[in-house]
Amino acid sequence: MKRKGFTLVELLVVIAIIGILVGLLLPAVQAAREAARRMQCSNNLKQQALAMHNYHDTYKVLPPMYIHDTAVTDDGGHWAWSAFLLPFIEQQPRYDALEVGTAKARAKITTNPELFQNPIDGYRCPSSTGPAVHEPGVDAGYCIDDINDTNTGVAVTNYVVASNIADLRMKRASNMIDGLTGAIGIFSRGIKGEPTAGLRDILDGTSNTLMIGERFHSRAGGIRMSGGMMLVARDNLSRGPTARDNPDNTATNQGVMSLAGSARYPINVVMTPSENASSTKKMAFSSLHPGGAQFAAADGSVKFISDTVELSNGNNGGGWTVDSVMEALIGMQDGVPTSL
């Protein structure tokens, strides 16, 4: 009498078929998850752009890239654009507790470090990896000193404002098509005598000018791409990165680079482990979304820009003037309105 059931060979065949089906379905599941993460990231950018507009409705200007506090000592902190948006992203209690723009950041991080270190979901891309807080032992230039000169980590953000096409500058450009003369994008520092930009200053059109872009935070493969600093910028003179008022107007590494992005390098530029310490490639826009990164334009729309978008990358006769699509999208008064 025959017994009903599977033979060993039949069972192995069934297992193999199931394995093949799982292998076929897994990429689709992963793609669906990434699509959901990308949609959430897009929503984050949309909310930040709306917050920028609400800030503008209130103050008639856009927030500064950061407020340059001349009283801040080396390695101290300056209040950044993401701090000024707090009341407009449902973070009024944190804004009030920080006393943004009034209190010194280094004093507040001494008494209330959690206000700087607790992440805000709207400032993090769900696709980005890495810790939620910058680690002083790894990213000293992305932390600030408290009043005891203890280097203290602040939360990571994956969003930076669009500022320039060359090395990052603190001041507004004197020639709005030349990135060597200053920031040709919307955002520059805020300081007495240097008013920040308003929507009226975006002569190329708000739909054609980028406002905020992505930057991922990762340690994969020995690469240190450090994202951005949430709420503050570091004023660092001794370690190379700087947000100080340098005579040459430069701010080429952490500090201002932790708040703003530049089109000096292509989106998702490749960086090697040997470039980790001081590479200016960290000022590039980047993401873990395949093929490019997302940006919010000044009209509030969100755009995905391919990492193959036209970029002259300073190859226009050795200069840093606007002559490519990505550069034109950064500049707000370059006279080259470009849309995607």
TrEMBL record:
InterPro entries: DUF1559, N_methyl_site, Pilin-like, Pre_pil_HX9DG_C. PROSITE patterns: PROKAR_NTER_METHYL. Residues 30-310 form the DUF1559 domain. It comes from the Bacteria. Gene3D superfamilies: Glycoprotein, Type 4 Pilin. This is Putative major pilin subunit. It comes from Rosistilla ulvae.
